Amino acid sequence: MTESFHRSGEYQNPYEGQQQAPVNPEWPPPPTYTPAPAPKKRNRGTVALLAAVAIVAAAIGGGTAYGIQELTGNDTVATSSTSTNVVPSSQKGTVAGVAKAVSPSIVEISADSNAGSSTGSGVIITSDGEIVTNNHVVSGASQIKVTTNDGQSYSAKVVGTDSKKDLALIKLENASGLKAATLGDSSGLQVGDQVVAIGSPEGLSGTVTSGIISALDRDVTVPTDEDQGQQQSPQGDGWPFEFGGRQFNGDTGSDTTTYKALQTDASLNPGNSGGALIDMNGNIIGINSAMYSPAGAASSSSDAGSVGLGFAIPVNTVKADLAKLRAGATD
After folding, report:
1. In the annotation, is 299 catalytic?
2. How far apart are CA 256 and CA 226, in angstroms?
3. pTM score, two decimals?
4. Which parts of this chain are annotated as the region Disordered (predicted)?
5. What is the rounded distance in angstroms from the CA atom of residue 128 to the CA atom of residue 123?
6. Which of 55, 130, 197, 262 could form a disulfide with 266, with the two C-beta atoms 3.0–4.6 Å apart?
7. Which one from 83, 105, 163, 166 is the annotated catalytic residue?
């Protein structure tokens, strides 16, 4: 039997076992619980896309990588094997930041020869003391002394020279732990780019000046004769060179070479030769090699000093020549 038995007189709810309506119709039942949808997996794809963009930017270099650096806040972003931001982000784009980052890599060079003595500059490119400078700074030298930014003195020997490009490689004796400069890429330079020059004009080591790239691909002619190599004395008019068919700062002689140079209005004076021309990321983009000095500057104080016509060997020329210099070339 399926019926329920009830004692006599006991009330039986006719709705027993059935769902009852709420007592107060103004109070609706709580809403049915609906679980939240599972999170979509798009976020992982977005992160992967960002990573891919960063990799592409690093491969492209230049302004794109600069933008990625701004997003990530990294102090140093290597955009390629030859272009690195070595200036801390807090001092990015400032002359002070460039000077602080690069000055430890710039040296003063004193060279003695039968023709006299000269003072120039150089750029450390390896921690054990390889230094790039101008050929005319060390040409014919019997003794070379190098002073680093912190005042340490070293003897140096010539490893290789290339008079056709006015470049030389020297090596310090018993040196280690030096701060090597970063060689940049001069192919992307534009007229108007800001630059910093560091060197030892007139023996004033560690001098910092700034300016812009004034022109590209200037045909500058310089002497290759050894007897023209010692022209950096304080009384001299600076390294002789020729431009546009005219000779400046003395006679270039009969044996000359011509190279494509960067022109800058950053102040250069005798002694800056072999020093660094640097972009605002702290990369070496040129080796300072020649400057114009007005006729009679040595005897007239009103004409003395830089007039904003300086020239530098592009760093890509330097990099292309390094293997030859390291092999002991004496061209």
Report:
1. no
2. 11
3. 0.71
4. 1-40, 222-256
5. 13
6. 197
7. 166
